[in-house]
Write a structure and sequence with these properties.
The protein has 800 residues and is mainly β. The chain is built from 8 helices and 49 strands. Helices cover 10% and strands 39% of the residues. The longest helix is centred in the last third of the chain and has 28 residues. 36% of the residues are buried.
């Protein structure tokens, strides 16, 4: 897409001895304005409190997957901008995935997911994606409803930005609202001196835009009157009619972009005017008008974008390199360059809980797929947004666009897209600013993966310009000793780490003057160099509003089914725990039971508990930051969510668990600060006894010592740092009808299959495999992929 196409409208070319102001601006644009954008795919458009949000992120540098960043921050906020959870996502070829577990106690309201790379923080925060997520909770005192009416405003935009006497001018009319737009609307244009006569009329293409054409006369004042389907109207003034200027007309077709320039009452006509076309902040086209003429027409071929779809920004400069007109247009709007999935086999059934499969070709150029399968209810509701609209439209604009996916649907109206682009302005850069020599201030450069600044201290003093040794141990892997050199400020740096397990870092310093070296006088702190940033802007307006819930709160069937699915998951998890407990019945007393009796009182005795013994069993805790981090994934039904301080909070079956330290109610921060080597036992109690769902932590007593085969436990010379957040694994299993303990009466899952990284291996067909729920008669299957040249595969089909 960085091909540059030059056109000289006369054959005489004058040699250039020095760069002009415009040429310097183009060079600056090429060197300083690389920018990224994010699209976030979620498995559903709305959720119930207690659900899990599965997401896949795509990061682009223009229209290709970005190679600039390897780290993405994804944050979940409440409507009052309270940070609920966040994830640090590893990007591979611009793609990454993760999930958020929503609390069952989450109040019903609209939540927001923000996603951005560290490099994106160098530019306007408005370009960071903020996705609206409505979450419903039947126990919440308030209910989310869709606003029936809203206030809207209208603006009219002349095609070239100019409205000139005697020149036919195309206008786009754009409606905006903080909440929702009217379903349809109409309008008329009048001369204020003769308001009862319509010069022309128009009707909306969609909720966003309409267009009309008018030839103005000098001295006239024109207005547009817009009326929506509810009868609300608004009158807006069209720009004042100018006596001179430049008119620009643009038409985009499959052959290319045709433009026509007309000069009216210009001193030197169009001589020495320049036409510059940019794609993704890079020069793609340039034409010079070197002869005396009042009109110039040319066709920009599609090869400037290698035949790909994208937005072209046309800018016209006069003989003094002043910007006089600009216009956005879409290249090949009626021919979207999208590949479809090559399906070689399929087995689709409608019977409840049946096994289904779809095989993709192993010989395709596409090797890695993102796949989402959901139940399709047959309503054929159009998508509001999708990857196509994020890539080609909304990722580059900060204004709110209603249902942007419609512009890239099968029956999309290309006139509507063109009118929308007339009403928009490219804000990734400003030509007038670039012409003055201004460049972005790049504070956060793109770093490869995660990097850290290590601060070693010996006997209370920093080790400046010194050689130190750092023992690095990742998870259960063997530790490795590496030498580092501190700088003049006393810092050493660990760069480009790509991992999703805790990394234990231990500091060692060589002895001096034959004195015995000890780690007791060493202290180490570690600070990440890749950090999230606070959100300072405002969340976008939505079509929802909160109202006080009535006595009998109405729950949609979609949310009711989601809540039932949560109950099924809990029932299955509880059954698995009970089965494991039954296996233990009848066994003889062992050291773990003796330890439990020694440390626990009657209030904390429960048959429905899981015990971790650190005195009699080696639990391999040396590489863990704290006991709460260590517990992740080690007990059925126990999950964790980080609070705003970065501490893991335990949840049992979706409900926040109580935390006890030596049977005294405590908080997560206190327990997180206890060295794992001081812990004797942890007991997970699930919904029984007097304490309910709880995590009880007991510390060492008397002569107790941890049983550990590891070489040492962390001291002050050690620190543990976390890596990327590892995405959860989506469960692909059939609910068991035969096992009475696990019997599920009604399988109501909406998301049947989620795989953000389906790939082929050794030419084995990549297989999409899932089990039906109890009601689905047809399935909506979304498949996304990119090949090595970043050609896009986007395929959404209904399977019956």
């Amino acid at each position: 897409m960085k091909n540059i196409f030059f056109v000289l409208l006369i054959s005489t070319v004058q040699p250039v001895l020095a760069q002009t102001k415009l040429e310097k601006a183009i060079t600056s644009l090429e060197n300083n304005y690389d920018q990224e954008k994010v699209y976030l795919l979620t498995d559903k458009s709305q959720y119930a409190a207690g659900d899990k949000i599965w997401f896949k992120s795509f990061v682009f540098d223009g229209y290709n997957r970005s190679a600039l960043s390897t780290t993405l921050f994804v944050e979940l906020y409440s409507a009052d901008k309270k940070l609920i959870d966040w994830k640090t996502i590893l990007l591979t070829n611009g793609e990454g995935s993760g999930d958020f577990q929503l609390k069952e106690s989450l109040p019903e309201q609209v939540y927001f997911v923000r996603a951005y790379t560290p490099y994106m923080t160098n530019f306007n925060e408005d370009f960071q994606i903020v996705k609206t997520i409505p979450v419903y909770n039947p126990d919440s005192p308030e209910s989310l409803v869709i606003a029936k009416s809203s206030d809207w405003t209208a603006k009219a935009f002349p095609e070239s930005g100019n409205f000139i006497n005697g020149m036919p001018t195309k206008f786009a009319v754009r409606l905006s609202s903080a909440t929702s737009l009217p379903e349809n609307w109409t309008g008329k244009v009048i001369d204020t001196q003769n308001p009862n006569v319509s010069i022309t009329t128009f009707k909306s293409f969609d909720k966003n835009v309409a267009s009309f054409k008018i030839t103005p006369a000098s001295g006239k004042k024109y207005q547009a009157i817009i009326q929506d389907n509810t009868g609300k109207s608004q009158t807006i003034d069209l720009p004042q009619v100018a006596e001179s200027g430049l008119s620009l007309e643009v038409y985009s077709s499959k052959e290319g972009v045709k433009y026509t320039l007309k000069g009216i009452n210009l001193k030197q006509q169009l001589q020495n005017y320049k036409v510059v076309g940019t794609i993704n902040n890079h020069l793609a086209y340039k034409a010079n008008i070197n002869n005396l003429t009042n009109e110039a027409t040319s066709l920009i071929p599609t090869k400037i974008s290698n035949g790909a779809n994208c937005i072209l920004q046309l800018a016209i400069f006069d003989e003094q390199d002043n910007l006089v007109a600009q216009r956005l247009c879409f290249i090949k709007p009626g021919q979207l360059k999208i590949e479809k999935a090559e399906i070689v086999a399929q087995s689709i059934k409608q019977t409840p809980r049946s096994f289904n499969s779809i095989d993709l070709s192993p010989e395709s150029y596409f090797k890695n797929y993102t796949v989402l399968v959901t139940e399709d209810n047959g309503t054929q509701n159009p998508e509001e947004e999708n990857l196509l609209s994020g890539l080609w439209l909304t990722g580059d604009f900060t204004t709110k666009i209603d249902s942007p996916a419609q512009y890239f649907s099968k029956n999309a109206n290309t006139e509507a897209l063109d009118a929308l682009l007339i009403s928009e302005k490219w804000q990734r850069f400003d030509w007038n600013s670039v012409l003055t020599g201004s460049v972005p201030n790049i504070k956060n450069k793109s770093q490869q993966y995660l990097s850290y600044k290590v601060k070693p201290i010996q006997n209370g003093s920093m080790l400046v310009n010194s050689t130190i040794s750092l023992m690095l141990k990742l998870g259960n892997q063997e530790a490795a000793l590496n030498q580092f050199q501190t700088d003049q400020n006393g810092y050493a740096y660990i760069n480009n780490l790509n991992y999703d397990e805790p990394l234990n870092v231990s500091l060692f310093v060589n002895s001096e003057n034959n004195k015995e070296s000890t780690t007791d006088n060493l202290f180490v702190t570690i600070e990440p160099l890749v950090n999230p940033t606070s959100f300072t802007g405002n969340f976008p307006g939505t079509k929802y509003k909160l109202v006080k819930a009535t006595g009998n709160k109405t729950i949609s069937s979609t949310i009711s089914r989601a809540i039932n699915t949560q109950k099924n998951i809990k029932k299955t998890a509880t059954a698995e725990v009970q089965i494991e407990e039954v296996k233990l019945v009848g066994k003889k007393t062992d050291p773990k039971e003796d330890l439990d009796k020694e440390l626990s009182t009657g209030m904390f005795s429960s048959m429905n508990s899981t015990i971790f013994d650190f005195v009699n069993e080696d639990q391999h805790v040396a590489g863990s930051t704290n006991i709460l981090d260590w517990l992740q994934g080690r007990a059925a039904g126990l999950t964790f969510q980080r609070n705003s301080s970065g501490v893991n909070i335990p949840y049992i079956r979706g409900q926040q668990a109580k935390l006890y330290l030596n049977e005294t109610l405590s908080d997560a921060s206190m327990i997180a600060n206890i060295p794992p080597s001081n812990i004797a036992m942890v007991k997970i109690i699930k919904g029984s006894g007097l304490v309910g769902d709880a995590v009880a932590v007991y510390t060492m007593r008397g002569n107790m010592k941890p049983k550990s085969n590891e070489k040492g436990t962390p001291k002050n010379n050690s620190s543990v740092i976390k890596g990327y957040d590892k995405p959860s694994e989506f469960p692909i299993e059939m609910l068991d009808n035969d096992d009475p303990a696990k019997k599920i009466e009604n399988d109501t899952r909406e998301t049947l299959y989620w795989n953000p990284n389906l790939f082929d291996s050794d030419y084995v067909p990549p297989r999409i495999k899932f089990f039906n729920n109890d009601s689905a008669k047809q399935y909506k299957v979304l498949i996304i992929s990119f090949d090595e040249d970043d050609n896009l595969l986007y395929d959404q089909q209904i399977f019956k």
